[in-house]
Specification:
The complex is a heterodimer.
Chain A lengths: L1 H37 L12 H7 L18 H26 L6 H13 L2 H11 L6 H9 L12 H29 L3 H9 L4 H12 L1 H17 L2 H6 L11 H10 L4 H28 L1
Chain B lengths: L9 H29 L2 H4 L14 H7 L6 H12 L1 H19 L5 H13 L3 H14 L5 H24 L5 H8 L4 H12 L1 H17 L2 H6 L8 H7 L8 H36 L1
Chain lengths: ~300, ~280
Amino acid sequence: MREREIPRRKISLSIFFIPALILIIFFVIFPVLQNIFISFFSPSGEFVGLNNYFDVLSRREVVNVERLSRGFPLGALIHNVIWILIHLPLSLFSGLVLAIILRDVKGASIVKSTIFLGMVTPMIVGGLILRFTFEKGVGVVNALFNLLGFEQLARTWTAYPDTALFALVFGSVWLWTGFSMILYSAGLATIPKDYYEAAKIDGATPLRTFFRITLPLLKPITLTVITMTILWELKIFDIVYVATLGGPGGASNVLALLMYHIAFRQFDLNSAAVVATFLTLLTLLVTIGMTKYMVKK
Amino acid sequence: MKIRIRKIKKSTIIIHIIAWSVALIWTVPFLGILMAAIRPFSEIVHGWWNFSVFNPSFENFAEAWNHQTAPLGEGIGNSFLIAIPATIIPMLVASLAGYGFARFNFPIRDYIFLTIVLIMAIPQQSIAVPIFQIMNTLGLVDNYIGLILVHSAWGLAWIILFMRNFFSTLPIEIEEAARVDGASEFKIFYKIVLPMTLPALASVAVLQFMWVWNDFFLALILIYSPERLLATQRIPLMRGVYFVDWGVLSAASILLLMVPVLIFALLQKYYIRGMIGWTIKG
């Protein structure tokens, strides 16, 4: 009886997966593969192997070697790297500090909600707010620099090549800190109170308690936050689109926007597919690397 | 009655001052666009924090709502038309699949699962060109059905993962009892399992709705008729040609922002749970 039952059960079970599979295969997996496929062909349909990659990835819009010592634009890839190098440590650190401070603050949930507002804000609005905040005259950042006596920094940041990217990067810390703060808060709530009591009895200093108990126990969360944040930084698009459109003169361009520009403004689909595949490769490397690291631990 | 005076430590006061000032600083950029939205530009041109003249009005909101080239009112209606089905469809589809992953063993399950995790990582740019071509052949470019399908498929990965994690926490005994009684797999799912998943579905609904509402990139590549543009697409169009009209732009931003902020305010619990669920447990 059992043997006859199993195949029948299998058929009825497959119904659970079929709708999801159809949607994912048609609108996610097939397009992703198709995109990789296109990246190996010339616009006239010839197979050109890796030639598109050599051509596109050596363009000045991706990495501008000559300008590396002279300032922006440095190329979209470098801009993404700069974004990660500044934004990741700043948002990670401020989120952790806030989560720790807010543990014993009255009204912490209101403070948290305020900081988290940036995460629910549509990024298209977020980018606009950044531009406004860094605008000369109306923006608060420039008033602050004037007040502190840095008159040369009091200007519309998004309008100058040497400050445009930084305005967006620092501004995006404001938008994204809520993410690490919320995850760290959730993580801190899972650490048993007795650990801290035991440490207190042993006479451990707060700093020692932090490095010996809190930080090691938060490690899985730190890894998650790092992974998700890097993915977000690599995919950044809306903020740049609405605030600067990658300008001035490409000084704040990023890979996702460059891909859009090549595909839908220059209509060079094959080159755009190269940028998209390259970007996908970067995100997969980050994910696979982190997953392996997490599994190993 | 004895009055007990609790000693408040100095460090406690300092921590409170820091925490509350951080919260205040965090609201400053939002206050900026709020002021720009409710005041004429001439008043804020030397900083919105100058209140020597203060004539608040809702003119900018009205102008943004009925904007000449990109009326936001129409855009907000369109965004709802996309976001509601693009939330419900993947919720239903992914609940089925998530349950399947949590309960049934089959040989290639782990590989499919790995694929789902990887899908969550890849950027939308990786499907942009082919999805445009596919929709073009299907006649679904500049058509809401096309965009709803892409959003549904794109949301499936994380919702399946999230729902699977939720289903694996449910006790299997009830389902087994029903199976012994001769109920079919599907009946067990929608009569017994689904009612228990309402809190998880609420989290999914909140997150997916916000994701679709806030999306800009997919709309940008698939929708282009002026009257069909979604709310997010209309914001960059309101910038103005010769100068940036901050009044209208800020008002439009606030209108667009209101929807996710209201959802967050009312359903915060579900939002946070969803957020933590799909990042940590995964």
